[in-house]
């Protein structure tokens, strides 16, 4: 059974940093593109960043470009999201997922992804 689990969330002041981790059981994370998403209650899930399988090409939403960095440690079967210069509008539940289909030209469309973890809460507030 495939299970994704996110960790590393918490409360941080504006301008601060957090590193989120995405681990998986029953699934090798470097065999498929992996993406991070975030969701605020009442709003649609938003794609944040993606790392491809193979050469690890990365992709970012405009809202986080230059502040967030996605990376992968294959030995640990873990994908990270380093978040710097955090803003209150980054507050959300962050989840990771694996791409299993290509139903949209948008690399960060949630419709491409499965095996969603429960998420980790990130709160940016003073």
Helix tally equals 0
Counting DSSP E segments of at least 2 residues, the number of strands comes to: 11
Residues in helix, %: under 10%
In terms of DSSP E residues, the strand content is over 45%
Shape: globular
Description:
The chain is an all-beta fold and 126 residues long. It is 0% helix and 46% strand. The chain contains no helices and 11 strands. Strands 2, 4, 5, 6, 9, 10 and 11 form a 7-stranded mixed beta sheet that branches. It has a 4-stranded antiparallel beta sheet with strand order 1-3-8-7, with no helix packed on it. A hairpin with a 6-residue loop joins strand 5 (46-51) and strand 6. The model has no long low-confidence stretch (mean pLDDT 95).
Task: Give a quick set of tags describing it.
single chain, 126 residues, mainly beta, seven-stranded mixed β-sheet, four-stranded antiparallel β-sheet
List the helices and strands and how they pair.
Layout: E1 3-7, E2 10-12, E3 18-25, E4 34-39, E5 46-51, E6 58-60, E7 68-73, E8 78-83, E9 92-99, E10 113-114, E11 120-124
Parallel strand pairs: 2-11
Antiparallel strand pairs: 1-3, 3-8, 4-5, 4-9, 5-6, 7-8, 9-10, 9-11
In short:
By secondary structure, the protein is mainly beta.
């Amino acid at each position: 059974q495939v299970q994704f689990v996110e960790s590393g969330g918490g409360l941080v002041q504006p301008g601060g940093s957090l590193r989120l981790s995405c681990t998986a059981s029953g699934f090798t994370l470097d065999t498929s593109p992996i993406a991070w998403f975030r969701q605020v209650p009442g709003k649609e899930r938003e794609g944040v960043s993606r790392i491809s399988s193979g050469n690890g090409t990365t992709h970012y939403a405009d809202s986080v470009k230059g502040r967030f960095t996605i990376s992968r440690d294959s030995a640990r079967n873990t994908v990270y999201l380093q978040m710097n210069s955090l803003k209150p509008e980054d507050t959300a539940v962050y989840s990771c997922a694996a791409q299993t289909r290509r139903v949209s030209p948008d690399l960060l469309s949630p419709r491409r992804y499965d095996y969603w973890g429960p998420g980790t809460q990130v709160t940016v507030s003073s």
